[in-house]
Amino acid sequence: MSLLKDSELEEVHRKIIDGTIEKCGQFYNTRILEAIKIRWLKIYERKLQATEKGPDQPGAAQQGGAPNVADDFEDDEFEDAEVEEKEIAELEQHLQDDEADELNELDDISISDLSDVDPPTSNVIVGICDKITKPCGRRNASSNWKIKLKGGLMKVDGKEMFFRSLQGDLDIVGGGVDSLCLALYLSKNKHHIKLLNVKRKCSLLDSHYSKKNVCEVGRHYAFPLSGSSSHFGELLRWVTAEDEVIRSNPYASNLSYLDECGRTYRVNKFIFRILFCLLKDHLFGASIPNPKEERMSSFIRRRFDANLLESVISPYCLHYFGYSPRDVLMRSHFPEFMDRLEEEKSLVKALRATAKKGSSSIFAQKKKSVKFAKGNVTLLSKLRDHLELCSNVEVRLGRKSIKCEQIIFCLSPPELKGLLRKVIFEGKQMDALVKEDTLVKKYLSKFRSHAVRISNVCFAKNVLPLSHSLESLLLFKRNKQNKLISLLYDGNIFPPQCDGPSGVEDHPGEPSPEGGLYKTSLRFMSRETDERKSVEEIDRFLRGVLGVQEKPDLLVSHVHHVFPFDARADQAYKKIIRRKCPRVRLFWTFYFFRSFEFCLQEAKRFGEAV
Question: Is residue 166 part of a domain?
Fold first, then answer.
């Protein structure tokens, strides 16, 4: 009985196809299933047509080059037939031609244009479709369909993993602690990442090893750790580095400053003046305006006095930020506090509300400063080791040509400016970005940098008999004698000697004096960038102010560039990037803000938004 004459059998076939597509619609995208249904129906109709023409024109199909598929349904198919090896080969060739014709038919109903240069792969991704974007009709737009999956299972290079969402590859250009932390948060969100290292070392975290001593020469000397709920504590647990940290001297509670005549004053000398200004602001400060572009210098002058600004605020800003209060934008560095101040109309109420909310690390309970016993570069090595074990992260060395779905630059403004001149981007959109060199220079130049030199001075002997009673942190007022900003004394700059294995054994060096560790350790910060002049001013300060006549046994110094954050320039430049090339994003929070906890918070927020 043939299919053409049996209308009931034809109806059964169509019901089977419709039922199968309907059942699979719960698990697969309906557009793909519709394409499969059309394919099945076309194959079925062609077989019906071939069966109908078979009795009348037995050789027509073979003459036209199409296979005789009607033979599949004849009851007497092999009756009186001679089976030869030659005919088997012809049948195989006809079947191959049949499959090729079916694939040619499917070309007309394709839902995606795949690149013919993509290599074949055995990777499989099964997920729930969240969004399908059709190609744009504009001439210069992409002609590819875009599919976003919101959950499923992927098998890449033989490894299986679950994912929440999947959109494409991400390339992170950097190599410092900022790019490593961002890659870690992105990997937690199941993104596939390629990390391109274009830096030899990280200026934010850098350790110097000499004679079994560890010296921190980076911008970050210590890290605040406020309980297990902090982002830094979470980071330590992820990379299994909790056992590597040691307690640092909590110098934040021991502030003092040095005036032009070399006299030392405790900050608590100004406590009564500060309380009086806070009370006055609480009673009469509701009428004081808060401009959007207000800087810390004008903010302090409106609510306190110039003496407090010059004696306490300016030295501390120079030590903490590396630049003066006139370069500190209040809404850029303290946005939540400024929003609360507008609501409460009082400094006291705003400070209390911020402390209760716990949004500021200043009011964090059980706050302590920690660093790594083997040097702060331990954090970098731990991050790299952790990322290399992640199946969705690939660490590479930087190249001049990169190709990816989305690029994230973790670079400072000067580094980004230099990279855009050298890197060859593939694609017309990136070429358009490079052509806008005038806009790039205009807005990147707004992020002007300030150079500071950090010098670590160490003595084998205890050259300061009263060093244990010396204030932990000295802040220097601006004076004509030198360009020093601050002096930090900390007995824990180097890790205590222990019997167990130490990380400094990886850098043995020469035998160190007095049992292995220097007894006096000082860390200077200065605006003097010339190395010779910096050594001279430190020597004058040691001899003239501290009365130290011995020469240092170790002096290590590095110049760092700090960048005042300009919110308007930041928004303007990122707007240009989004307009000229939507695939490029910037993450440079670590270069503008010193709070490591805040930087990790921004990295986590950035990773969740991608």
Answer: no
- Measured between its terminal Cα atoms, the distance across the chain in Å is 61
**pLDDT per position as a tens digit, 197-256:** 777 778 889 888 877 788 888 888 888 877 666 888 888 889 888 888 887 766 656 778
Give the 3-state secondary structure of residue 481: coil
Maximum distance among all Cα pairs of the chain, rounded to whole angstroms? 120
H-helix segments, 174-313: 177-188, 231-238, 271-284, 296-303, 306-308
Domain carrying residue 35: 7-73+89-109
Classify residue 565 as left (phi > 0), alpha (psi -120 to 50) or beta: beta
437-444 and 428-435 are packed helices; what angle lies between their axes, rounded to 10 degrees? 60
Name the more confident of 530 and 445.
530
Contact 450, 562 (CB under 8 A): yes
Alpha-carbon gap, residue 77 to 140, rounded angstroms:
56
Q: Is residue 13 part of a domain?
A: yes
What tokens were used for 350? 């705003």
Are 55 and 75 contacting, i.e. CB atoms less than 8 angstroms apart? no
Q: Summarize the chain as % helix, strand, coil (round to 5).
A: 45, 20, 35
Q: What pLDDT is attached to residue 270?
A: 82
- Cα 113 to Cα 500: distance, rounded to the nearest angstrom: 61
Q: What is the DSSP string of 564-610?
A: ---HHHHHHHHHHHHHH-TTEEE--HHHH---HHHHHHHHHHHHHH-
Give the rounded percent of residues in the chain with a pLDDT score beyond 70. 62
Return d(Cα 582, Cα 575) in angstroms, integer.
10
Structure-block tokens of residue 292: 């959007």
How far, in Å, CA of 309 to CA of 316, rounded?
Answer: 10
What's the pLDDT tens digit per position in 19-78?
Answer: 887 777 766 666 677 777 787 887 877 777 776 665 555 444 444 444 444 444 344 433
Sheet with 473-476, edge to edge strand ranges: 264-266, 255-258, 473-476, 484-489, 520-526, 450-459, 554-562
Q: Which residue intervals of 174-260 are DSSP H helices?
A: 177-188, 231-238
Domains identified in the chain, total number? 1
Residue 575, token pair as written in the block: 């707007």
| Distance in angstroms (rounded) separating the CA atoms of residues 170 and 583 | 10
Residue 16 has a CB neighbour count (10 Å cut-off) of 11
Give kind and range of the element (H or E) at residue 105: helix 85-106
Classify residue 116: in a domain, yes or no. Answer: no
pLDDT at 126: 62
User: Cα–Cα distances in Å, from 63 out to 57, 59, 84, 236, 315?
Assistant: 10, 6, 21, 74, 95
In a domain, 40, yes or no: yes
Residue type, 303: R
d(CA 176, CA 398): 13
Instruction: Tell me the residue type at 206.
Output: D
Specify whether the CB–CB gap between 433 and 581 falls below 8 A: yes
How far apart (Å, rounded) are the C-alpha atoms in residues 242 and 235? 9
Instruction: Report whether 50 contacts 70 (CB < 8 A).
Output: yes
